[in-house]
Amino acid sequence: MAKTLRTSGDYTVKAGDGYNAGSGSNTIKLDARFVRIPGDLTVDGTQTVVNSETLTIEDKFLEVNRNNSTAGSEDSGIFFNQGSSNHALFYYDAGNSEFQLGTSTQDASASSISNITLGQLKVATTPTDGNHAASKSYVDTQLGSISGSSFTFVGDDSTGTILEAGETLKIAGGDNISSVIAEPDTVTISLDRDLNGIDTISTDRSNQDLTLTANGTGEVVIDPVLTFTLGTANPTAITSTKVYNKTAGGGGTGLYFKNTNIDSGTEGELISKKKATALAIALG
Which of 85, 128, 200, 275 shows a CA-CA span of 20 to 30 A to 46? Predict the structure, then answer.
């Protein structure tokens, strides 16, 4: 028959020394097909063991590490018993502020995880949102047309160079060339302002001028010697002054100039100090 025991206050059932800070050894056993507790249940021991085959919880969220009061200071998560193999676990690594999953020689009695072999996480083959984790299959599919193909790089002269998969494109230039790769799909190649170790500057097209231009009011500075090679042809005069080298004439320098605004573009030779002195004496 059913029986109800009612008290007007707290009711304690104690076996032997009770809990008594963990020193008691007696057990209270409720032997029934079903045991129901209509109110809240608080367990103040150090370990709770559930031997049932199926655990069903109505709560929408589960809280672990309940009594932690220090922000972001403790690892916490779930261990999965794997028998004689290392435990599997999924936990929050407080030190690195990230979730990790894998296997460990530690068990649920650990206060923090000091060793873990990271495991595999299987996700849907094709992500349906930009923030979904991508599977290897999906990434391989997206990159398949790139990883197995070759690229052709073409210069200004329309000559192409084929770069096969796995090969590296190198842009030469000593210490003067730097490159930066940034998303989305941008490669920036920079030429340093100071060119070091450059022995020759030449144009790559026949009869093309080479122009040195200073910025703003800046000047093109020759430090310390400018050398003119010996030439035979006379350049065409223009409104700018052209200076060139030929066999020395009456001026004794071999440096000639032309400018259409000077003597109608007639060739003139810069005169040396020695020639100028001799000419001054001769003319009195």
Answer: 85
- What percentage of the chain exceeds 90 in pLDDT? 48
Return the bridge partners of 151, or none.
Answer: 163
Residues contacting residue 185 through CB under 8 Å, at least 6 positions apart: none
Tell me the β-bridge partners of 161. Answer: 153
In the 8-state DSSP scheme, what is residue 243?
E
What pTM does this model have? 0.50
Contact 119, 88 (CB under 8 A): yes
Q: How far apart are the C-alpha atoms of 102 and 81, rounded to whole Å?
A: 12
DSSP structure string for 85-140: SPEEEEEEETTTTEEEEEEES--TT-SS----EE------SS-SSTTSPPPHHHHH
- Distance, in Å, from the CA atom of 156 to the CA atom of 104, rounded to the nearest integer, reads 58
| pLDDT tens-place string over residues 108-120 | 999 899 999 999 9
